[in-house]
Amino acid sequence: MAFWKELLSNTSTDAETQFDRLKNRLFGRLEAHKPYRIIYYRGFGSPSAVWLKGRVLRQRNLSTPSDRDTFWQNLLATYQRFESDEVPGVTVRIEAFGQTITTVTDKEGYFDVTINPPTDLPVGRAWFPVRYSLDNVVQTENELNENRPIGVEATVDQIVVKDGHLMIAPPYSHFGVISDIDDTVLVTDATNLIQTARLTFLGNAYTRLPFAGIAAFYRALQSGPVTTLFNPIYFVSSSPWNLYDLLVDFFRIQGIPKGPILLRDFSFSTKLLASEGHHSHKLAMIRKVLDVNPKLPFVLIGDSGQQDPEIYSQVVRENPGRILAIYIRDVSKDQRDESVRELIRTTEAYNVPMLLVADTVAAAEHAASLGLIDPDTVPEIRADRRADNEL
Predict the structure, then answer these.
(1) Cα Rg of the chain (Å, integer)
(2) Is there a single domain that holds both residue 141 and residue 203?
(3) Which residues form a coiled coil (predicted)?
(4) Is 7 helix (H, G, I), strand (E, B) or coil?
(5) How far apart are CA 60 and CA 279, in angstroms?
(6) How many C-beta atoms lie closer than 10 Å to residue 112's C-beta?
(7) Which of 32-36, 119-123, 290-294 has the lowest mean pLDDT?
(8) Are 178 and 262 in contact (CB under 8 A)?
């Protein structure tokens, strides 16, 4: 079985490489008329190191979603997200903290760098600006402005620039939060492939639904027991980077606190849907978050539908004393619940409570009992749950 899995994986990887070469050969001239786009993903780090990632594509701007979008508009937007024309080998200039560094995109158009911030960061600040630009790449204003009337030419060339932000947990943060997204924050039904595809491909940031009360609960966790605090929240998912803009819009619309969103590359590899790929990706991202915040304890939030309990219990074993609590939303059948309860007994041996909860309020009440959130926020979370359930 291992031989066939490896053969299929290698074959699919070769097919993807050949497809990219063929696409670049056949459509290179057409793609030359598409504007360059720098897609940046929110960076994060510590006072000693910051991780930045992004991508360069030839892509038109996606239309702004609305709650009135039709089936076909949503389907077109999904097609545009996944039909990305990556730009390999282009130099990206990054400016942050008064420093300037350059890096080169890989064959999929991604860039990935680590920078060292200055030692005198403002104590009360969590978000910092960063600017991305493309070296030796200019395009006309006509290329950048897709709404310019046909026949109206522009003669001004512009450098391709994108402004973004990165997050560094302030020294007064009491703890951090690492949260799954699918079936934890966002209703996805990840155990049902057809339903997941329908929600992902035919919905948008307005039509997708949050779990009831989740926005108020995450705001309470970010504020902690004292509302002047800022506890960083990191979102980790095995969803592809192609869905990044949808998730950013969804969090903004629902009032969920802003934080880095860590996804993974989409490819034809058999590992994309395999459980080991899901496990290894999420574990690697969680380890990265823990590594850049070596003195910060964490709360972990996930669901029972896939492997969050297994991944989180491994994190507990690898990081004794650093995990304060684990909340697992119960979205699975009874036979799965029993295996989760076994993992709960495992984490108890490390004095880490792992709760299998039916809803957000149950998690919030326990968090309040541990002093993780202000008890006065629990009524707001209950009200938020009721309001979400009425949608």
Answers:
(1) 22
(2) no
(3) none
(4) helix
(5) 33
(6) 13
(7) 32-36
(8) no
Of 168, 202, 230, which residue sits at a domain end?
168
Number of Cβ atoms within 10 Å of the Cβ of 224: 20
**What residues have CB less than 8 Å from 150, skipping those under 6 apart?**
none
Which residues make beta-bridge pairs with 103?
Answer: 92
The tally of domains found in the chain comes to 3
What is the reported pLDDT for 2?
43
Q: Which residues contact 122 (CB under 8 A, 6 or more apart)?
A: none
d(Cα 57, Cα 60) in Å, to the nearest integer?
9
Assessment of whether the complete model's pTM goes beyond 0.90:
no
How many angstroms separate the CA atoms of 65 and 246, rounded? 9
Q: Is 121 left (phi over 0), alpha (psi -120 to 50) or beta?
A: beta
Q: How confident is the model at residue 226 (pLDDT cuts 50, 70, 90)?
A: confident
Distance, in Å, from the CA atom of 357 to the CA atom of 303, rounded to the nearest integer, reads 9
Count of alpha carbons within 13 angstroms of residue 88, beta-carbon side: 8
Which string of b and e fits 253-278 if b means at least 16 CB within 10 Å? bbebbbbbbbbbebeebbbbeeeebb
Residues 235 and 295 in one domain: yes
DSSP state for residue 35 in the 8-state scheme: P
Looking at residue 85, its pLDDT comes to 83
pLDDT score, position 271: 45
What's the CA gap between 105 and 108, in Å, rounded?
Answer: 7
- Residue 358, Cβ density class (10 Å: 0-12 exposed, 13-18 middle, ≥19 buried): exposed
Domain span at residue 45 reads 33-168
Shared domain for 294 and 384, answered yes or no, is: yes
Q: Residue 75: phi, psi to the nearest 5? A: -65, -40
The CATH code of the domain that includes 135 is 2.60.40.10
* Range 151-173 average pLDDT: 75
Amino acid at 346: T
pLDDT at 209 over 90: no
Question: How high is the mean pLDDT of the chain?
Answer: 79
